[in-house]
Write a sequence for this structure.
């Protein structure tokens, strides 16, 4: 029997600390996390075009999770995890606009969509994920998860033992709160982990960089003009970047750093079992996250998160017969750096980006339902292809 039809109205309502557009005939739920600043202040405005496309074209309930930008990205990531379980509980039990609660019960109906630093939070949550016996008693299950996290932190901070305890507390306290909400929510134990193992995710220009990355060069803003950029860079931008470098070098900046984020994933003995349902959309000329054509972007490969994710991590995953999805768009014009293409500043660019996000979600859905790998990594010569 088909579902009844309702008039679709794309409108966000506040639920918990987030914004939710409930689709009356929802087929899936997209949980969105934006880039630094844009994901904190008015994300439903900055990303409205993209989210509206997903609502109407994919039939998704949209959950936009704003976050407090902290130097501890562990805390921000786990704040997001805790919030998404709160929202899930409300949608299942309390929200009057939800006409089919069953869709919100199954982990397979949930997708993560994240831009820039938001993608870092998703990656950290999956990197910490571990499959555990869900029938274990509550305290025993928590202890096994806690022990895994302790071992992972010890590896990443092996050269800095004084920081191990501090970083561990940054993780365990918010994780404990998220675990308690998850445990009460999963009465049927349909989830293997309170984290996000095997949850489908689309990462837009993933940015794992350190504090310095939030101070872009003025020359990266084409609309500013070369003359004005040449004045602002030496007077304001360069001194701020040097200050950020000093803070990062003293381990007082954002944590984990870019290198530590890479190590968190690479040191995991579970790395071959992670990111099997991850898709990445990148943009040629992106000077923040980088791209796979490093000659286009004046950044070394070591500083490009996109290069690391696609050209260093993906081959390891492919060795385990997985086929992560990657697509790189060329010719993106926004008036700003291509990194900001998901903001939908220009309508023509927005349509291309939105179309590819929808395509990535559809391919992830197909991949999850098929036992065989799906070789879908691609690069096209034009954004309009």
């Amino acid at each position: 029997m088909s579902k009844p039809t309702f008039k679709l109205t794309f409108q966000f309502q506040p639920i918990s600390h987030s914004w939710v557009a409930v689709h009356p005939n929802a087929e899936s739920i997209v949980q969105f996390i934006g880039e630094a600043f844009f994901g904190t202040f008015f994300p439903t405005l900055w990303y409205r075009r993209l989210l509206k496309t997903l609502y109407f074209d994919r039939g998704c309930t949209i959950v936009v999770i704003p976050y407090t930008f902290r130097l501890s990205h562990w805390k921000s990531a786990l704040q997001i995890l805790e919030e998404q379980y709160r929202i899930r509980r409300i949608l299942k039990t309390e929200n009057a606009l939800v006409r089919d609660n069953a869709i919100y019960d199954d982990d397979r109906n949930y997708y993560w969509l994240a831009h820039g630093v938001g993608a870092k939070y998703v990656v950290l949550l999956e990197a910490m994920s571990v499959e555990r016996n869900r029938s274990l008693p509550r305290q025993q299950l928590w202890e096994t998860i806690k022990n895994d996290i302790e071992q992972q932190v010890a590896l990443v901070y092996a050269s800095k033992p004084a920081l191990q305890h501090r970083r561990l507390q940054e993780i365990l306290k918010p994780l404990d709160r998220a675990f308690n909400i998850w445990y009460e929510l999963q009465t049927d134990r349909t989830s293997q982990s309170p984290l996000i193992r095997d949850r489908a995710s689309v990462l837009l220009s993933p940015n794992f960089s350190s504090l310095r990355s939030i101070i872009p060069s003025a020359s990266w803003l084409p609309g500013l003009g070369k003359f004005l950029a040449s004045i602002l860079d030496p007077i304001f931008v360069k001194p701020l970047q040097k200050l950020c470098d000093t803070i990062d070098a003293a381990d007082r900046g954002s944590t984990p750093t870019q290198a530590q984020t890479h190590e968190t994933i690479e040191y995991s003995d579970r790395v071959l079992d992670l990111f099997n349902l991850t898709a990445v959309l990148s943009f040629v000329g992106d000077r923040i996250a980088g791209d796979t054509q490093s000659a286009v972007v004046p950044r070394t490969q070591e500083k490009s998160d996109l290069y690391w994710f696609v050209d260093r991590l993906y081959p390891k995953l492919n060795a385990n017969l997985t086929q992560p999805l990657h697509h790189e768009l060329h010719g993106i014009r926004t008036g700003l750096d291509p990194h900001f293409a998901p903001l939908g500043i220009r309508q023509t660019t927005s349509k291309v980006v939105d179309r590819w996000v929808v395509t990535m979600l559809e391919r992830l859905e197909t991949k999850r339902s098929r036992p065989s790998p799906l070789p879908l990594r691609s690069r096209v010569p034009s954004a309009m292809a």
Remarks:
- Residues 295-299, 372-385 have pLDDT under 50 and may be disordered.
- The chain has two domains: 13-210+256-379, 217-253.
